[in-house]
């Protein structure tokens, strides 16, 4: 058990730093894109229209299906992993592990159901408008 705690105490800060670095790099990318767009609009460059179209396409994709399927599957896998960990333990942790596994399982199932409902609503909207 002490080995697991030692491993987590060394790896958790590294993982947090990596996630933080990724977020900072995404922020820098967005800032550079906005700066480029502002300069292109101020000098009335023809590339400004392409950049605005790129941003509009990205915003359209995010509004429809924001990746709930991937998040749902990861949460379901996490819940199953927690439940599996409880099953292979020799002491009496099965009940507490199964209880802990319920939360990610239910949230993952809810995200998959939400994605299915959103996809169905989009399909019916396209069918009625087209």
| General shape | flat
Structural class: mainly alpha
Low-confidence stretches: none
Total helical elements: 4
Look at the structure and give the mean pLDDT: 81
How far the N terminus sits from the C terminus, by CA atoms, comes to 61 Å
Main beta sheet: strand number and arrangement?
none
What does it look like?
By secondary structure, this protein is mostly helical. It is 89% helix and 0% strand. It contains 4 helices and no strands. Helix 1 packs across helix 2 and helix 3 runs antiparallel to helix 4. The N and C termini lie far apart (61 Å). The model has no long low-confidence stretch (mean pLDDT 81).
Task: Provide a compact summary of the structure.
This protein is mostly helical. The chain has four helices and no strands.
Defining key terms:
130 residues; mainly alpha; 4 helices; 89% helix
How does the SSE layout of this entry go?
Blueprint: H1 2-42, H2 47-64, H3 68-88, H4 94-129
């Amino acid at each position: 058990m002490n080995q697991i705690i030692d491993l987590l105490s060394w790896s958790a800060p590294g993982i947090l730093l990596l996630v933080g670095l990724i977020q900072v790099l995404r922020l820098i990318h967005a800032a550079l894109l906005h700066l480029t767009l502002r300069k292109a609009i101020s000098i009335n460059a023809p590339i400004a229209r392409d950049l605005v179209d790129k941003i509009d396409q990205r915003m359209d994709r995010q509004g429809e299906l924001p990746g709930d399927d991937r998040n749902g599957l990861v949460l379901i896998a996490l819940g199953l992993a927690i439940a599996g960990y409880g099953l292979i333990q020799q002491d009496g942790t099965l009940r507490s592990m199964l209880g802990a596994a319920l939360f990610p399982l239910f949230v993952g199932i809810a995200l998959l159901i939400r994605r299915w409902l959103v996809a169905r609503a989009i399909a019916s909207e396209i069918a009625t408008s087209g």
